[in-house]
Each structure stands twice: as C-alpha cells, then as structure tokens.
Amino acid sequence: VQLQASGGGLVQAGGSLRLSCAASGSMINHMGWYRQAPGKEREFVARINSDGSRTYAVSVKGRFTISRDGARNTVYLQMNSLKSEDTAVYYCNLQHVLTMNSYWGQGTQVTVSS
Q1: Predicted pLDDT at 31
Q2: Cα torsion through 61, 5, 44, 42, rounded to 10
Q3: Residue 34: exposed, middle, or buried by beta-carbon count in 10 A (0-12, 13-18, 19+)?
C-alpha cells in the first residue's frame, strides 16, 4: 500500500487548506490524519472509518472535516479557521480492516502564520 499526501502549504491564521491523500490498491479500510509538530509526538487529528463514521481530536472539532472518495480511495482533510498551533507535518494513515495493518504517507507540511 502506498499513500501519497498533498495539499500542505503556508497560510495565515484564520485561513483554510485542504489536504488530500490517495491510497494505492482497493481494500476495505479506515483512513485518517495525524500530525507532528516540532519537538512533539505524533498526535491523532481525524479518522473516517469504512462505514463512514468520523472521529476528531478535540482540538480540531468544528474546524476540520474529514471525508473520503471511495471510488478513488482518497481521503481529504478540510481545515478551516487555522491557528498557529495547527502548524505541523500532517501524515495520512490507512488501516486495513481485516488485517489491521497500518500504513503511513510521507507527510505534508502545514504552516500557519499568526
């Protein structure tokens, strides 16, 4: 499984960005986003399960929206009202439902200037 993330960049506080992550192959899976800020551990951001249910970190709930295009095996993260504390490298994750194997994308940098 290969994951290709894109969409990061530099944005001013209050702005928006949309991240995309395309997965190779076609399998039943959960997909999500994590992020890692400098000097911090990687943390959960959002997840969308194979049944379409969604979960969010408290820090992004109401500002970020995760969605997926099943036909293209692609997950999106719409990020609105961005804050400087959202600055991090964002990683997409895919978890195979049957094997529970987890796969990671290469990461995309999001920088929010205050």
Answers
A1: 94
A2: -140
A3: buried
Q: Write out pLDDT tens, residues 4-39.
A: 999 999 999 999 999 999 998 767 789 999 999 999
- Asked if 27 contacts 96 with a C-beta cutoff of 8 angstroms, the reply is yes
In this predicted structure, what is the pLDDT of residue 83? 98
What's the confidence (pLDDT) of residue 44?
A: 98
Separation between Cα atoms, residue 107 and residue 86, nearest integer Å: 14
